[in-house]
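Let's inspect one such protein example.
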Amino acid sequence: MFELSVKDIVNITSGKLLCGDENTIVRGICTNSKEIEEGNLFVPIIGEKVDAHLFIESALEVGAATLTSMHSGVVIADKPYIQVSDTIKAMQDIGAYIRSMYHKPVVAVTGSVGKTTTRDMIATALSQCAKVYKTKKNYNSQVGVPITLSYLEEDSDMSVFELGMSDFGQMGILSDMVKPDICVITVIGVAHIEYLKTRENILQEKLSITKSMNKDGILFLNGDDDMLASLKTETGDKVVYYGTKDWCDYRAENIRMEDNKYVYDYVHGNKRVKVVLNALGTHNVVNSLAGMAIADYMNMDLDKVAAGFDDFSGMRQKVIDISGKYTIIDDTYNASPDSMKASINVLAEMDCTGKRIAVLGDMFELGDNSEKYHYEVGTYLADKNIDELVVIGELSQNILQGVKDAGSSIKCNTLKDNGEASLFLLSVMTPGDVVLIKGSNGMKMDQIVSNILGKKDEMF
């Protein structure tokens, strides 16, 4: 981790030291007073409901120093207060400064769907041959990226960052901070279309990841995505494609299942390497392919890299085996139409001796066409190998309607909340069942998973 003095921070942010010792050393940025660690710089964010300046004193009981946009003049305190005009902009300046001191390759990943899993898979691939630093948790935003940069490990050989956005102009700001050498775009979907209005706008915003890319850098695009594939005739030497299409530069061929794991042949030029992937869904084959492709581009040992995927473990889509009798696919972190369809595919393709049950909730931030997108998920699900559907939430009624209008034989249920859904599942689940639970984070469907796990001793 890079160390900065308070004097450094004052200079970086064009701030003013209101009190405290300018030689104080800080390590890492924290915006949550309850999670602050010794040596951290506390950055109070003014939110819609809470102004974190209220927590400066409690934060500094542990932290080393604080930024502030609410104090001026003389402040009497034992630890440094640094006055800045905008705390978020100041922390971004700090993040950018730390990045300027890091002279190792940096990979940046974005996309409407799959960016966290792809980030983890790229990091897994590269870490087989190098020491890799990657974005922690889901710190991919205007606030999260500078926090991630503040913990950048000086002795790492390379870094992998996840960049997320929800509105115009945000990706360019992140690119300015991270200054990537290699950029990856996974999928252009409809997540955040409420703010960006069209997929074309989302595409252009995602492409802004290259705004501050190294002039000798390279952009990896998913050739299986229709909008990214449509750029093929417009792209130059600094753009390559990965995917399952025969025209992609880096390809996955002969995709199959072996011992309930996905297996494929990685192909690039004359190279062909078998990859065994400990992750479900063909979409994850493509996500892992990004890691193989970048490792190949970096001239790493591909047999060694491929071996790393055999025990891959990521943040998303947790498969929980309960006493060897029941399987829960916990995909409750978030949801969009594309990720919902991908998870439905996983459920339909999993080995199952009982029922396949899909428990689906509302998807948020889809704008004026939200009902349409939910309905399309229903029509997509209608002909899949799924026995029962449970929907929770007002918007998800359109998923159910899509299934019914398609004339599907899938048994449909509407439940009012997570508690009722938990009780329903506990009453209908039988040995051999596989249950998918998925919805936007705001639906808090992880409560269903917790409820089922909490009752497992009574069930079995």
